[in-house]
Amino acid sequence: MADPKSFFLGAGIHEYLVAHGTPPDEVQLELIASTAALGGISMMQISPEQGAFMTLLTRLLGVNLAVEVGTFTGYSALCIARGLARGGRLICCDISEEWTAIARPAWERAGVADRIDLRIAPAIETLTALPADAVIDLAFIDADKPSYAKYYEAILSRMKPGGLILVDNVLWSGAVIDAAVNDENTLAIRAFNDLVAVDDRVDTVMIPLGDGITFLRKR
């Protein structure tokens, strides 16, 4: 099993946590392994417990249209696609043919490839090209941190009232509260967190799942 993304969890308690939820199946384990083979960049993959949670949440919400910004090797997309309502679809935004090439065979093996519309282009272009009256039920943002606010605005304007946006890495391994850390990504995460905390268009909660996820429900 991959190392925990939750910087506050040790390996032992993380293994226990995963073992006492719906475990990754064979396809997911293979995808975890093939992503780990990429080296350090594999930390971009969501954790197994995040994946199980996202499948469950997607099912509970009865999602017909979901959008993902930042697909990487496809684990989160696989998890969301599995939870979609009958006939539902997921639009995936990414710019890497190399990483998403790892995703496609896994989606096929999992039987969800027909639910996923992968668009290789800058995500903001894909999002702004969506119809203004698109009815997005669920979105997951896990991409370049300086663009989080742009992605958020583009999605929120096309989301139905009651729709939910999930934003990953909002704790940034604890660096969000470390005054000594001021690189571009950390500053971007802090600015985004401050922005949505006072946005009266949404109900907001940040939870310590993985590297931190913010839930934003459109009012």
Question: How large is the count of helical segments?
Answer: 8
User: What's the total number of strands?
Assistant: 7
Q: Helices and strands: which structural class? A: alpha/beta
Low-confidence stretches: none
Mean pLDDT: 95
The helical percent reads 25-40%
Order of helices and strands: HHHEHEHEHEHEHEE
Gross morphology is globular
Radius of gyration from CA coordinates: 16 Å
Largest sheet: 7 strands, mixed
Spatial ordering of strands, largest sheet: 3-2-1-4-5-7-6
Distance between the terminal alpha carbons, to the nearest Å? Answer: 38 Å
Strand content: 15-25%
Could you characterize the architecture of this molecule?
The protein has about 220 residues and is of the alpha/beta class. Helix content is about 40%, strand content about 20%. It has 8 helices and 7 strands. Strands 3-2-1-4-5-7-6 form a 7-stranded mixed beta sheet, with helices on both faces. Helix 4 runs parallel beside helix 5. It starts with 10 loop residues before the first helix and ends with a strand.
SSE blueprint and pairings:
Blueprint: H1 11-19, H2 26-36, H3 48-61, E1 65-69, H4 75-83, E2 89-94, H5 97-110, E3 116-120, H6 123-129, E4 136-141, H7 148-156, E5 159-168, H8 184-197, E6 202-207, E7 213-218
Parallel strand pairs: 1-2, 1-4, 2-3, 4-5
Antiparallel strand pairs: 5-7, 6-7
Feature tags:
219 residues, alpha/beta, seven-stranded mixed beta sheet, 7 strands, globular
In short:
With 219 residues, the chain is an alpha/beta fold.
